[in-house]
Specification:
Blueprint: H1 2-18, E1 24-25, E2 46-53, E3 59-64, E4 70-74, H2 80-93, E5 97-99, E6 104-119, E7 123-137, E8 140-154, H3 160-179, H4 182-189
Parallel strand pairs: 1-4, 2-5, 2-6, 3-6
Antiparallel strand pairs: 3-4, 6-7, 7-8
Keywords: Lipoprotein
InterPro entries: Uncharacterised_YajG
Pfam families: Lipoprotein_16 (PF03923)
Length: about 190
């Protein structure tokens, strides 16, 4: 009888430990966009970079477990500084100079970031990000939206490190897409 009681309490203890399904707070690491655009910018071109995180909420989605538990995935610190640094890196790679104040201006806005998890045999996480880039030069404007969607598959519920990696990868892919847009690069170069 004593073994049965110990087994029951051990099972309850183990199951209660498994049911704590915690939210994840991810952060954006420094972004180093890949620039493969054929065009380059003039070496003396100075560009002022601004950035904004336009999301309405810190919550980007919900992680789920095999037992239908849900927990928030949040990006509590605005991504604006990482986007600004990423844009500055891309400008340097294109041959121009980021400057605190310049006639040519570039605004990078994170308008959408979504994390959508579903569970079947594998857990799928679909991430979706959109940034808007607005360039101003000689009182003319060019604006474009750049979106990336990617689906990841996991045998188990993704860890915090997995979620961190996915969010950073989707943002990096999206900002890289913007700075490989020849229309944007050509507008800045003229």
């Amino acid at each position: 009888m004593r073994k049965v009681i110990i087994t029951i309490f051990t099972s309850i203890f183990l199951l209660s430990g498994c049911s704590t399904f915690k939210p994840h707070q991810v952060s954006v690491e420094p972004l180093h966009p890949t620039v493969t655009a054929q065009s380059t910018l003039p070496a003396n071109l100075q560009i002022e970079v601004q950035s904004k995180d336009m999301r309405n909420s810190d919550v980007i989605g919900y992680r789920i477990s095999r037992f239908s538990d849900r927990a928030e995935v949040t990006l509590p610190v605005p991504a604006s500084e990482a986007l600004k640094q990423g844009a500055r890196v891309a400008i340097v790679k294109l041959g121009a100079i980021p400057a605190p104040s310049a006639d040519t201006k570039l605004t990078v806005e994170l308008t959408h970031l979504e994390y959508n998890a579903t569970q079947s045999a594998l857990q799928s996480v679909k991430l979706n990000a959109t940034i808007k880039v607005t360039a101003e030069k000689n009182s003319e404007f060019l604006s474009g939206n750049y979106s990336t969607e990617k689906e990841y598959q996991y045998a188990t519920t993704p860890s915090l490190a997995d979620n961190q990696k996915m969010v950073n990868e989707i943002l990096l892919m999206t900002i890289s897409r913007a700075f490989n847009d020849t229309k944007l690069v050509n507008f800045l170069a003229r």
